[in-house]
Amino acid sequence: MRIIVFGFRPRTKQRRAVYDALLRCTKPLRIWDLYAFASGPSRFTNSDPKVRLLDEYFRLLGLSSYHASTRMIEDGSFTLSNELWRISSLNSSYTMCPTYPFALLIPRSVSDEELLQASTFRGRCRLPVITWCNRDTGAVLARSAQPLVGIMMNMRSNADEKLVAALCTQIFGSREQRRKLYIADARPRKNALANGAMGGGSESSSNYFQSEIVFFGIDNIHAMRESLVRLRDYLDTHGSASSDGMSSFLRHGGWTWGGGNLSSMSASVSTLGDSGWLIHVQSVLAGSAWIAARVALESASVLVHCSDGWDRTTQLVSLASLLLDPYYRTIKGFQALVEKDWLAFGHPFADRAGMPSLSGSGSMPFELSRQSSTGSFSSSPSRQASGSFTSQAPATSHTQNNYSPIFLQWVDCVSQLLRLYPLAFEFSSGFLVDLLDSILSCRFGNFLCNSEKERQQAGISDSCGCLWAYMADMRALNGGYHVHYNPFYEPSKHNGPLLPPAAALAPTVWPQFHLRWACPMESQAGELEAQCRNMSKRFTELQKAKEETDARVKETTATMESLAAELQNEKVISTSAKELASRASRESAAIKRALQSLGCKVHFSGDGDCTVGIESNPTEIPQKSVYFSSKEESAGTGVSNEKSELSVSVTVLADDVSNNPINRFCESLCPLHTREGGCRWPDAACAQFGSQFVGLKANFDAFDRLSIYDRYFQPE
After folding, report:
1. Mapping DSSP to helix (H, G, I), strand (E, B) and coil, where does residue 483 land?
2. DSSP letter string over 394-440?
3. Helix, strand, or coil (residue 617)
4. Choosing from 168, 306, 519, 686, which is the catalytic residue?
5. CB 454 within 8 A of CB 434
6. In whole angstroms, what is the distance from residue 475 CA to residue 484 CA?
7. Known binding-site residue numbers for substrate
8. Pair type for strands 140-144 and 85-88
9. In whole angstroms, what is the distance from residue 560 CA to residue 565 CA?
10. 125: which DSSP letter?
11. What is the pLDDT of residues 467-478, one digit of tens each?
12. Is 306 a catalytic residue?
């Protein structure tokens, strides 16, 4: 949709060289000249797409516990099944159908021999196979190419009829009622009949049990190409930034939209209608919605085909699957849908995008000649030679131009559904735009060549970068707030099939894609999404900050509780220490009173020592001191021994041991004094050495054993 004009000064000799260089770079003759190959190894490696296809088959069969691997493909152990359907490896070497995938999902009751017979009755051997199935109801969505009924419409195939009948299993819960089969022919009826002259045609409902034939009337690839050209010309002519440098406001005398020349305005609007693009988009939407309604509401099976089964058929079955299965409306599921229905089942991306491709005969590059006026390339020889008949394209210049925006048209349909159901899709319109740009950039190898077989022959997975890995890396940088994510996505709102009514299927021009070059300001339809995305990001940041604050508050609270517990423990220890100090004080007072009652002088020093002086004779004799220190460990009180010790220094002056009043008083008070009058020193906490001076240093425990308490001496 972008038109770039190069201007040269007069008599410039470089015009031809620049033109040839642009043509050589934009439309290379060989596939190896594409940027995906010429740029060298990419850090976005591409895993084997066959593995991803098998994983999708396993999901459809309800075998999600199985995971595909390269070894499983090599040894052929991927042929799993459930009670209704199975995976066949008949086309593992692409001998039956070169444009079909290596693994096919088919009814379990049909053998591989019958499949091989049925393939000969369909165009390009594209026999009916299952592309989507509902395990709960047993309904299937199948695809194929047109049957080869001939000009008389009387050719039949028992194998094909059995295969199609196997798609219509009995309805669950009913032993006799068989589900209905709809055969949806995407072409107009007259085109289907005209194909009979070239060996093709359409089915007869009389040959297929309980079936109904429906024609959707969707035009061929050439009509789509011409429609897009007219749409591009309309946007370029009436856009705000046209390729000729003239704004639409300056056309037709400056009154195109100014209000005076309504005839020119009507003419320009009719030009949009004449392009036919929106009509074609509506036809694809209506056909897909009809198919989805038959499968969802009637539990019917639908077989879809056109002429070759890789353009209109792919559009219809993939869009119907998107409506039926919520998984395909996620980013991961959308990737699986594109890889299954578009890449694996052989949509000719190289032919439709005007890129070079490979021949069907080998892995060597097949050089294609440039077209003089159309700027595209001819179809690959494999598609012209395979099958029983040639394409239905008329013998005009169309036969040399197979470019057509089929995939672009399908993505446009997806954007219309995204507009109708903004809560149902995980991806945004920006994701679809980046997908289309990446396909045409030739930067990745996912959409090169025309089939799975050709991509395998060219070694695309090993040589080129992967688009899906690149887009996943982009999303990983910004997390859930990347532009690819739809900020309004709520899967719980649409967890079932989407069945849009016919009145809602009125498409509009896709602004993010079609208007981004011609009308840049008006194409910013995603501003609301961006603002919502920023608000959601800000809300998440605030919520995260709140959670961090709550965590810090909890941590602070726990620390405070721990400190409170420690403080309480310290209070208990302090109280215990105070009690011990109080008890020691009382004991000291009791001892003091006891010694004073004996006529002793008691002096307590500042460090807790006590000096007791007893004097019975005015004449002092030399003193001799004896010190005892008795220590007893405190049981868990945590109080220092220095506080619990009571040091007492006693000085005794005596002439005669027998006449010393201390001896007499000691003998009368000592509870350990024997009847014989003997002293049990040092257990009695006293000492007697005749008339000598005795110095005694005892601690609190020594006085404890004296049993001198308040009960002997009342406190003052």
Report:
1. coil
2. -SSGGGG-----HHHHHHHHHHHHHHH-TTS-SB-HHHHHHHHHHHH
3. coil
4. 306
5. no
6. 7
7. 220-221, 306-312
8. unpaired
9. 9
10. G
11. 999 999 999 988
12. yes
